[in-house]
Amino acid sequence: MRNIALFGGSFDPPHLGHEAIVKAVSKLDYIDKIIVMPTFLNPFKKSSVAPAKLRLKWLYEIFSSLHKVEISSYEVEQNRKVPTIESVEYFLKKYDKIYLVIGADNVNSLHLWHQYEKLKELVTFIVASRDSIKVPNNFIKLDIDVDVSSSLLREEINSNMLSNINAKKIEKYYKGKK
Fold it and tell me: What are phi and psi of 50, to 5 degrees?
């Protein structure tokens, strides 16, 4: 059986919280592979700061050396907003079971996701803890102890919250966008 953990997001910018999530998921013995997949554009947003291909490149740099981790360009290649259900259906053609990794900050808005009722039938949710947001009992909780968010980093870029692998490049990019 091939079980994957699908971890999608804007990654605008990718940060240590994302790294902590991937590393924690990689320790779960029932996960064969982690697929990290940046959005072309988050379905709930009007724009991204960094272009999709640049965010994809940063993710390759950060995660390519990690065992069990694959970076997917699927949503970026669609060149449009892609609902999660569409990506899940795409990966179900290749894999047996999908664990969908989300941040706790998404739990309260899941009902707004495109075809959420169908989505929750197709995946098992893994929720990365964040702040003091309660994770429902029917989800797998992943304890993450990194207090950072991409939106706060865009406001005030802090290279200490970015991966050592490409922190300087990411910091330079966002400082240039202010």
Answer: -90, 140
Q: How far apart are the C-alpha atoms of 104 and 84, rounded to whole Å?
A: 16
What is d(CA 139, CA 141) in angstroms, rounded to the nearest whole number?
6
Tell me the pTM.
0.95
Number of H helices, E strands in the chain: 7, 6
User: Residue 82 and residue 34: Cα distance in Å, rounded?
Assistant: 19
65-102 pLDDT tens trace: 998 999 999 999 999 999 999 999 999 999 999 999 99
* 3-177: CATH superfamily: HUPs (3.40.50.620)
pLDDT single digits (tens) 15-58: 999 999 999 999 999 999 999 999 999 999 999 999 999 999 99
Q: Nearest CA to 154 among 129, 130, 168, 171?
A: 171
- The amino acid at 9: G
